[in-house]
């Protein structure tokens, strides 16, 4: 028998009236209470299709998608800034078809709303660090729990690191993404669109600096939508339908209702592009070609097993790290080299002026990421 989530995939969206800017059909439908269940996902067989990982964000072909690598500690919104996990990446990598799904999701969002991606492909080294950190903290909170209890609870929030070809860790496949939505003012969104429109007419360092300016604009003025908890919050309130259930028990406060609607928006946008929710984390979505996604969607097999970074991926990551160092140099002591184009000079000067005016890059208002840790 089909679940209500599976039936929702086949139904036409129901229009909801939530305000002038939110009259978008289907995007604020309630999240079905059985959404995101993955029981038995490890038993889904994998028929690997060989699809490659691609970078998204700064310096990539998907340069208009905003990323903030939480575990690397890329930006000030990361609780790990300056002490990222060993083996973590500044680049967000996903399977190519997943990148295209994210592009479609970005297009579906209401005006002035955009995706922010916190994590996707994850090395086993990082997965092991996250798992070990969480289960150690959980054992201190619950010294009376058995090893089995600790493993079950930990795996709600951090999958067991796995080298088994038939049971890879979801993030190690490049088919699981952790993301949220931010919103810009009308003026900032117009400015962002103007910057991004220049990407198709530039190349090389000129194009990269335009991306830097766009990223900087977002970091200055974006506001993360309120989803009720921080990203990586390790407690019951992080569950996808937490507010749907609460709404059935009592009237929600304005803040709770806002979190409810924002979770609905993210869920319905992701579902429309073919990404499946996970019941214990409102921010986690899986491609249907992954084991988790295939299980949730009721498909007979998955097509994504464990993934590896290609030489091109590694090269891109090296460039991203090199660029971070150059940006730091620009922020701390601006110098223009010889033979630099006028366009690039203007972009660098604008970047310098922004940094100086704020005594370095201002801390983004997108700060709702928590250090992964269980709650009492």
**Total E-strand runs:** 10
Tell me the domain tally. Answer: 1
- Taking all Cα atoms into account, the compactness measure Rg is 21 Å
**Biggest sheet, open or closed, and with what strands and sense?**
6 strands, mixed
**Proportion of β residues?**
5-15%
The second-level CATH architecture is 2-Layer Sandwich
CATH topology category name: Muramoyl-pentapeptide Carboxypeptidase, domain 2
Q: What is the mean pLDDT? A: 84
Stretches where pLDDT is under 50 for at least 5 consecutive residues are: 1-23, 334-340, 354-364
Name the helix and strand elements from N-terminus to C-terminus, one letter apiece: HEEEHEHHEHHEEHHEEHHHE
- What class would the helix/strand composition place it in? alpha+beta
Query: Can you tell me the overall shape?
Result: globular
Number of helices: 11
What does the model show?
With 376 residues, the protein is an alpha+beta fold. The chain has a single domain, classed as Muramoyl-pentapeptide Carboxypeptidase, domain 2, CATH 3.30.1380.10. It is 39% helix and 13% strand. It is built from 11 helices and 10 strands. Strands 2, 4, 5, 6, 8 and 9 form a 6-stranded mixed beta sheet that branches. The protein has a two-stranded antiparallel ribbon with strand order 1-3. It has a two-stranded parallel ribbon with strand order 7-10. β8 (275-278) and β9 (281-287) form a beta hairpin. Residues 1-23, 334-340 and 354-364 have low confidence and may be disordered.
């Amino acid at each position: 028998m089909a679940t209500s989530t599976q039936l929702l995939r086949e139904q036409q969206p129901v229009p909801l009236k939530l305000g002038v800017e939110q009259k978008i059909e289907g995007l604020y439908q309630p999240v079905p209470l059985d959404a995101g269940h993955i029981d038995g996902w490890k038993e889904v067989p994998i028929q690997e299709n060989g699809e490659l990982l691609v970078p998204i964000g700064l310096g990539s072909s998907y340069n208009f998608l905003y990323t903030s690598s939480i575990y690397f500690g890329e930006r000030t919104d990361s609780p790990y800034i300056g002490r990222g996990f060993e083996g973590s990446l500044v680049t967000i990598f996903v399977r190519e078809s997943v990148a295209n799904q994210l592009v479609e999701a970005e297009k579906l969002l209401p005006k002035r709303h955009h995706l922010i991606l916190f994590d996707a492909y994850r090395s086993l080294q990082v997965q092991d660090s996250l798992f070990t950190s969480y289960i150690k903290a959980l054992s201190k909170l619950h010294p009376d729990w058995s090893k089995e209890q600790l493993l079950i609870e930990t795996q709600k929030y951090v999958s067991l690191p796995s080298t088994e070809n038939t049971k890879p860790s979801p993030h190690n496949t490049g088919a699981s993404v952790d993301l949220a939505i931010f919103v810009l003012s009308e003026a900032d969104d117009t400015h962002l669109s103007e910057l991004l429109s220049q990407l198709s007419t530039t190349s090389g360092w000129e194009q990269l600096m335009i991306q830097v300016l766009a990223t900087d604009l977002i970091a200055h003025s974006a506001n993360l939508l309120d989803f009720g908890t921080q990203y990586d919050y390790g407690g019951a309130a992080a569950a996808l339908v937490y507010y749907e259930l609460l709404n059935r028990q009592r009237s929600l406060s304005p803040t709770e209702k806002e979190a409810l609607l924002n979770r609905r928006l993210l869920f319905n946008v992701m579902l429309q592009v073919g990404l499946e929710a996970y019941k214990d984390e409102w921010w986690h979505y899986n491609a249907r070609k992954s084991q988790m996604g295939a299980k949730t969607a009721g498909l007979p097999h998955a097509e994504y097993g464990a993934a590896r970074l290609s030489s091109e991926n590694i090269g891109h990551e090296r460039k991203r790290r090199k660029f971070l160092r150059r940006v730091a140099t620009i922020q701390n002591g601006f110098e223009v080299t010889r033979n630099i184009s006028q366009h690039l000079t203007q972009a660098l000067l604008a970047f310098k002026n922004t940094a100086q005016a704020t005594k370095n890059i201002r801390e983004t208002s997108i700060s709702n990421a928590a250090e992964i840790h269980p709650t009492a």
